[in-house]
Amino acid sequence: MRIAFRTDASIRIGNGHVMRCLTLADALRDRGASCTFFCRAHDGHLIEYVTARGHQGTLLPARKNDELNRALETGHAAWLGTSWEDDATETIRAIDSDHPDWLVVDHYALDERWERAMRPRCRRIMAIDDLADRPHHCELLLDQNLGRKTSDYEHLIPADAIALTGPRYALLRPGFAQRRSESLARRVSPDLKTVLLNMGGVDKDNVTSLVLKTMSKATLPADTRVIVVMGPHAPWQSDVRTLAGQMPFATQVLVGVSDMAGLMTTSDLAIGAAGSTAWERCCLGLPTIQLVLADNQAEAAVALAQCGAAIGISSIDSIASELPRALHKMQHDHSVLHHLSRRAADICDGLGTASVAAHLLDVSGVNGATQ
Questions:
Q1: What InterPro entries does the annotation carry (predicted)?
Q2: Is 17 one of the annotated active-site residues of the chain?
Q3: Which of 35, 106, 187, 224 is the most buried (most CB within 10 A)?
């Protein structure tokens, strides 16, 4: 079976869309499928990482003027770097005569118009979405956000399409499910010694540095250990490394981590963005202080806080005042960590990727009622 992916990464977009598609592609390849990625050549496009993982990758041409995408019919249209019509034409040209069995599209700037244009070049379409803000012309839709209901897409997808909704379908790498039991076991008697700081693969606004500066003034024990994880295209690596060397406790900066599940398992607390990494933390029951770094993270952040699975910082401007209070509370009351861990672990078990892959490969099953 041949699977095509249309998704992008960039300094502006971040890495999350490509990374979750890669997770799904790895699972499909392990089950005998062949996967090809079609990505626009934005700064930070990650196509080399895609091919290094053993998949085929094709770059669509970059545009010199992002304002080519001036018809803002969708809220994230500027992320595409061109019009949806030109993107469809270039993707069709890149696919050429190779009709994939599935075309998976994970892009906030694309909707049913683009998907209808792609119909002559593929047999079936899967849309990955987080927003429920535009229609899709697809056989299968995935929205892995907490609190998302299939009824949210009732009038946005065809009546006979399948909608997979909620974190039970979160696209996590297999290492997270494999580490789940170990991670949960060590949180029965929680402590606060190792803090994992990860603001996503890009962190274009350098929130990492702001968090580190705030932590340096907090009343944390001298034996506290901080591990900072950054993506290979993160633009503020040098600044963060300089700050790390000035911290009053051991602070390590890691770039391009391959075993995130292992790092999370051995960490006592995460400070991170409320993006797709949230489901990784939930799978491992990792207590979290979360920040919203993009509008599309806000809904999931609210849902996680409401169910007691994370403590939210109300805004980036509030980090200096709210983060020390949250750290002080956790340091002196470990029951907070225990409560956060239990609530988070109830949300996601890490088996979603296998379930989604099964839906794609079981073609006969994609012809029924919404799940």
A1: Glyco_trans_28_C, PseG
A2: yes
A3: 35
